[in-house]
## 1
Amino acid sequence: MDDYYYTCPFPKPGKPKKKRPQNGYKDKPSRRCWYCGRDYAERHEVYGGPFREISIEMGFQVDVCPEHHRMLHSNGDAWAKVENQKWRMYYQNKWENEQIADGMDPEEARDRWILMMGRNYL
Ligand SMILES: [Zn+2]
Ligand SMILES: [Zn+2]
């Protein structure tokens, strides 16, 4: 038993839902920015564009305040570039490790990731 999920601030990626996914944009008092801890954070999808919906389905998300959210989307400075890359690597690595823990061959896990998300971030 891995105690990762007891300490990780993010929900374990769930099964895709039938309903069209919502990203939970509606702010919640208990939702805090990953970076600065401000509450009423927004939910940011780590993979955007055509991969935004699957990010919602799989929980590839991070809660951020409007200011940090804007910075991530602008991708305009070194901080944002590093952070965007870091989250994309984090969730790919996490997803692949979950498949491997379920008995999947590591190469197959990598192939399936690329099929699902379009590219390898690692
Ligand atoms: Zn966002
Ligand atoms: Zn913030």
## 2
Amino acid sequence: MYPPRHSAPILVGHSPGIDALRRFIRKAGDSRSPVLLLGESGTGKEIVARAIHDVAGSGAFVPIDCSLLGTLLETELFGHTKGAFTGAISSKAGLIALAEGGTAFFDEIGEFPGEMQAKLLRVLQEKEIRPVGALETHKANFRVIAATNRDLAREMERGNFRQDLYYRLNVVTLHLPPLRQRKEDIPELAAHFLARCGSSHQLSSELLQTMAAYDWPGNVRELENCIQRMVAVNSGPLLTTVDLPSALAGPVEALLGAAPPIAEFEEKAPLSDPPRKPPGILRLDELECNAIADALRFTAGDRSRTAQLLGIGRTTLYRKIKRYKLA
Ligand SMILES: Nc1ncnc2c1ncn2[C@@H]1O[C@H](COP(=O)(O)OP(=O)(O)OP(=O)(O)O)[C@@H](O)[C@H]1O
Ligand SMILES: [Mg+2]
């Protein structure tokens, strides 16, 4: 009746923070209250959402990308009837209908478009939906879990997020601790990710010390990527600090080194100069492409953080990723 169930997520770690998380998951899973998960990027919000859903064990877990544009999001969420708009050659069920009896996971709820927030509030209050183009509404029974790495309370104070929607979602709240606050989990997480790559590599004690000294701004996702990259380039059996990506040695310096400031670059290469290209000088678009690739590596592919790091908007970042074929 429902889509096939995924295998249960394994929440690795035994720090006080993770143990508390496990207790919370059991409690929250048994209730049907909305849950709001707050935490930096890569801290495990989605894996925790899946774990909460799995406690009840009914229906499907349906992730919803809240950063879609308003009209697209509306048809994604509520579905549409045949002929509702040009190109709607057949009717289509929305994601909320797919989550019937299960969980709708609103990922990045902080990005939910302002003009759609009132509609979402109504759906959560009335528990009914109306597909785009339909005249009738129909009942919807689903559990809500929302997640964000933004300070949603501040977004509400600034008027970017509706107060009534905030309180409706914020019934049970959980803050996921960043990895730098539970470094004792690093060896267990590293072993878990090694096993997941099917690797029998060992980690040197010096490597574990370096990992413990690093702050992991990309959290568990960055650690996962780091392990995968080290395994890919080292035939084993021992991984040492030599195998670490450069970001761990000095992240900011590494990034600055990859992309010198443009003003300085222009001063040294005035337009009237003959088009010589001394070694080490790159075209501006090559510099830009390298800087984006480095920042993506550094953030372990997290596009919001990459855009922040580069000082550009997400839309601009998406455009450039496409242009340089970095995805
Ligand atoms: N405690 C954990 N045990 C095992 N794996 C974990 C744990 N926490 C996170 N991960 C893994 O780290 C990666 C990132 O986790 P997840 O996608 O849940 O983070 P997130 O908080 O949703 O990040 P974002 O805000 O960037 O979407 C995933 O591959 C996930 O399986
Ligand atoms: Mg996520």
